[in-house]
């Protein structure tokens, strides 16, 4: 509740004079949710349904946060999240999307080397506009997978190494009936060979004991396995795979942790584009909630009896508890002051978790002039120079290509004006399709510079612990934390953000129950009945 409004209202002023206990008995417990993205809205919805008084304070003039469906072209285009990662009933968002009957266009199945794309429908070009042969792209894809496997696993386990040598010796001794001198010679040879391999294994292990950037690990693999080294066009295609990987983490390969890059849990069912955009989902969740747009929180004071939250223009809001669901980038920037300060372990988690940048430059054309594939790629000497365009025409029927730079490239493009950024993307397209016609409209996102986000999504940086997501989630007194960066299982995703919102709501409900003993009036956050399961509408099965 806005405390300035209360000062001008005598009845409310009287109500304010009640002790906390009386106030809580007079009404249900209250909570302030800070941030109206998927995490915040999920938490607010759950607590509202559990009979809490909920106020959402959102800094922007819209809800959704990094889910931002734009309609200025006359049809929906997502400038933030657009895929449901894990098209399956286990996805926490599946019941909501299924009930709304929203169609999904599946761009990949499980375990694709290109994450959210299959290698079935693509066209890669070099900088001179020559299309790369499909079998070369597939071959390099397999090599890329081998490189990652080599980088992350020991070449041979010790027991299998001993077994391998023993079998070999036994076979030679008994099958070929060597004389004793030869057998001794062979034994000596195998002993030396075994020692060399053990030393090599141990060296690799030592290398891997210390975390390192994925880019360095790849160089080490090349030293150990020269047969995996590529040159010429093959090398450029390999750089393009790296570029796709960097897009997935929104970070450059020299900052991604080798130890943890593959620790995130991928739900089954592949990846599906939300054909009509994500907005209908969050709008449905937000229905009936008290959401205050344009309320940028600057200070959060926590005391035993509750929290006081201050917004930019000085107004304050009070409640029994608060859920902080602002992006990691905003927490890192210290633009919200916590009083008392957050504990050291929480501040360290905020500092140590990485936040990457990925942007979208959406180009709308008069008509389609590109090949009928799901994405177009540009291969080059370095992953920085590689790029790719998502062809929305395949999924939505609209003549739209989406250029998606990540990491340093995204940071560099953010320094340009929107017009220059759109021209840059168009130039890349012209390289591969020289007859491309000019776009009639464009949209450019700025997730790194936008003060409401300050980054696109979280990732594991080199040398940091993987439990930072969990540490970020753990409550501090009556402050609860939600958001994609607090999701240990599904960081950097909409369903991850959504599930942390539900978790924070449940933690909050339990704490209020423990503290105030108001068991009867509060319903469980997740609802008593299991959600009705409605199958997802998926095209391109
Ligand atoms: C380009 C891009 C592509 C992506 N693609 C996908 C995808 O395809 N699939 C997928 O699953 N995920 C994707 N993601 C990630 C996904 O969008 C996020 O993980 C998710 O939306 C985060 O939700 P959230 O609630 O944690 O944070 P947000 O959505 O960022 O919500 C936080 C809210 O807090 C508000 N806020 C900030 N500061 C304050 C303040 N001081 N006071 C009050 N309010 C404040 C913000 O305005 C915002 O509304 C993508 C993200 C980006 C940027």
UniProtKB/TrEMBL annotation:
> What cofactors does the UniProt entry give for this protein?
FAD
- What GO biological process terms does the UniProt entry carry, in alphabetical order? polyamine catabolic process
Task: Indicate the segments forming the Amine oxidase domain, all copies.
Answer: 38-508
Which keywords accompany this UniProt record?
Oxidoreductase
- What SUPFAM superfamilies does UniProt report for this protein, alphabetically? FAD-linked reductases, C-terminal domain, FAD/NAD(P)-binding domain
Q: Which Gene3D superfamilies match?
A: 3.90.660.10, FAD/NAD(P)-binding domain
Gene Ontology CC entries for this record: peroxisome
This protein's name? Polyamine oxidase 2 isoform X1
Gene name tied to this protein: LOC113690593
């Amino acid at each position: 509740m806005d405390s300035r409004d209360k000062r001008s209202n005598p009845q409310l002023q009287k109500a304010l004079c009640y002790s906390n206990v009386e106030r809580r008995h007079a009404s249900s417990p209250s909570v302030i949710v800070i941030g109206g993205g998927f995490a915040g809205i999920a938490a607010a919805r759950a607590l509202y349904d559990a009979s809490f008084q909920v106020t959402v304070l959102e800094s922007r003039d819209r809800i959704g946060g990094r889910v931002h469906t734009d309609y200025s072209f006359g049809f929906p285009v997502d400038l933030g999240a657009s895929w449901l990662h894990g098209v399956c009933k286990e996805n926490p968002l599946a019941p909501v999307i299924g009930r709304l009957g929203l169609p999904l266009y599946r761009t990949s199945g499980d375990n694709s080397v290109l994450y959210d794309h299959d290698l079935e429908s693509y066209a890669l070009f070099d900088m001179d506009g020559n299309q790369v042969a499909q079998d070369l792209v597939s071959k390099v894809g397999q090599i890329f997978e081998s490189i990652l496997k080599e980088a992350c696993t020991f070449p041979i386990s010790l027991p299998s190494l001993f077994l391998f040598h023993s079998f070999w010796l036994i076979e030679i001794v008994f099958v070929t009936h060597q004389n004793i001198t030869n057998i001794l010679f062979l034994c000596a040879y195998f002993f030396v060979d075994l020692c060399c391999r053990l030393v090599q294994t141990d060296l690799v292990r030592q290398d891997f004991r210390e975390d390192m950037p994925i880019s360095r690990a790849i160089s080490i693999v090349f030293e150990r396995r020269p047969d995996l080294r590529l040159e010429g066009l093959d090398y450029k295609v390999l750089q393009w795979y790296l570029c796709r990987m960097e897009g997935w983490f929104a970070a450059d390969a020299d900052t991604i942790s080798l130890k943890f890059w593959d620790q995130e849990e991928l739900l089954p069912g592949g990846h599906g584009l939300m054909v009509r955009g994500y907005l209908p989902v969050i709008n449905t969740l937000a229905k009936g909630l008290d959401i205050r747009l344009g309320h940028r929180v600057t200070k959060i004071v926590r005391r035993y009896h509750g929290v006081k939250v201050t917004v930019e223009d000085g107004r304050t809001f009070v409640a029994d508890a608060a859920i902080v669901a602002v992006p990691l980038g905003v927490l890192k920037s210290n633009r919200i002051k916590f009083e008392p300060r957050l504990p050291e372990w929480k501040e360290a988690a905020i500092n140590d978790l990485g936040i990457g940048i990925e942007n979208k430059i959406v180009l709308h054309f008069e008509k389609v002039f590109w090949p009928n594939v799901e994405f177009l790629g540009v291969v080059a000497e370095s992953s920085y120079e590689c790029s790719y365009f998502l062809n929305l025409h395949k999924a939505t029927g609209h003549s739209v290509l989406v250029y998606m730079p990540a990491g340093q490239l995204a940071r560099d493009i953010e320094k340009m004006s929107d017009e220059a950024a759109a021209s840059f993307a168009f130039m890349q397209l012209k390289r591969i399709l020289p007859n491309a016609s000019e776009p009639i409209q464009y949209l450019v996102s700025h997730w790194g510079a936008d003060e409401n986000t300050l980054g696109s999504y979280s990732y594991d940086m080199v040398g940091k612990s993987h439990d930072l997501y969990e540490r970020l989630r753990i409550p501090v007194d009556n402050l609860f934390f939600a958001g994609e960066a607090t999701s240990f299982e599904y960081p950097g995703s909409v369903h991850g953000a959504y599930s942390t919102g539900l978790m924070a709501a449940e933690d909050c409900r339990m704490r209020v129950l423990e503290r105030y003993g108001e068991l009867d009036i509060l319903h469980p956050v997740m609802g008593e009945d299991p959600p009705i399961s409605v199958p997802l509408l998926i095209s391109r099965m």
